[in-house]
């Protein structure tokens, strides 16, 4: 099944007063233990996925795991998280939105996978709640391993516009409670916002035109030639406003710091289960594979001398919690992706967490990259290993002007994990032609 793609440019609409709702209907897809639901995890079409979306639930225990719609899905026969008859999950948005479709994915633990819905409600900018027509769904037991419930208008029209919040109210649930894998809200924010890049004193940059972006969308980084790169001996370190998720008109000013590393706050981890050889052993654009790269480790079990530019001896090298592996490039580089391979040597030790990915700049300052924490998650036996990939989904470098990169391991399966290879893809930094360095 092809995962649908949405773009904010396509979804942006003019704001509509109130919350006119269409008549929706429910459909259900029966899932098997080996068939995870089709997820739309990207923020460019899933209103639940934005960092600015506030999520709450009627039970405090549930509120801890209701993190932007993603309920830590486990692709296997494990229970995910539980919701009970009468529970409510509320998603509050940072701006008015259009709601096209709601998806509710259930899990498959012990048959507790059938849900009823009392209602799906939407709130407008005036604070008024409206129950979406036909959103009540009686419990119907199918005895399946899991279900995907989809609520949408059959003609493809939006369920509601001018929406500031969505509330899902559960009706009867099989055996009183059921496992939930994820809640998705597909749609788009309404209208556009203006981004005006300014100097440190708030004066708009003369050669950087204002940008009009869809609400919730990202502004493009200005040409560095027209942005002050130095101030009082400090280096440009980004902007004082988040230009990658814009929910209001903003006037970002440059920030200056000793830390020269510039990094994407959109980078995320992905995990791929492996059944045979783990390593890609790619040499092209692999900074870890260069003979000039110096690799060092702390706490790695086995013989550190067997670690040669990212390739480990997976018959003798193991990583434990808080062990580190560092790559010194000797010069500034832009890093696109980090791949950490964990292997299957000894009793299925293939699951691992990452505490942080850290980048060092030319001044010797280390920065822990936002989003680089990866909690340990058991995915079940039967896999030979995993490839953990850290990258920006848009394909842009997740860290620029980096002289060294360090990976610190988090919790590992049974206390340690086999480690066959780490790869670092990127290229050495080349200043833009014609760049103007302005010292103020």
> Sheet bearing the most strands, described?
10 strands, antiparallel
Unreliable segments of 5+ consecutive residues = 1-17, 63-67, 72-79, 433-440
Overall geometry: flat
N-C termini distance: 55 Å
Structural class: mainly beta
Helicity level, as a percent range? under 10%
Mean pLDDT: 81
Q: In angstroms, what is the radius of gyration?
A: 24 Å
What is the percentage of strand-forming residues? Answer: 35-45%
Molecular structure report:
This protein has 440 residues and is mainly β. The protein has two helices and 24 strands. The chain has helices spanning 8-11, 60-63, and strands at 24-31, 54-57, 81-84, 88-106, 115-123, 129-131, 146-153, 160-173, 177-189, 192-195, 211-214, 230-231, 234-239, 254-257, 262-263, 268-274, 294-298, 318-320, 324-343, 352-360, 366-368, 385-391, 399-412, 416-428. Strands 15, 16, 17, 18, 19, 20, 21, 22, 23 and 24 form a ten-stranded antiparallel β-sheet that branches. Strands 1, 2, 3, 4, 5, 6, 7, 8 and 9 form a nine-stranded antiparallel β-sheet that branches. Strands 12-13-14 form a three-stranded antiparallel β-sheet, with no helix packed on it. The termini are far apart.
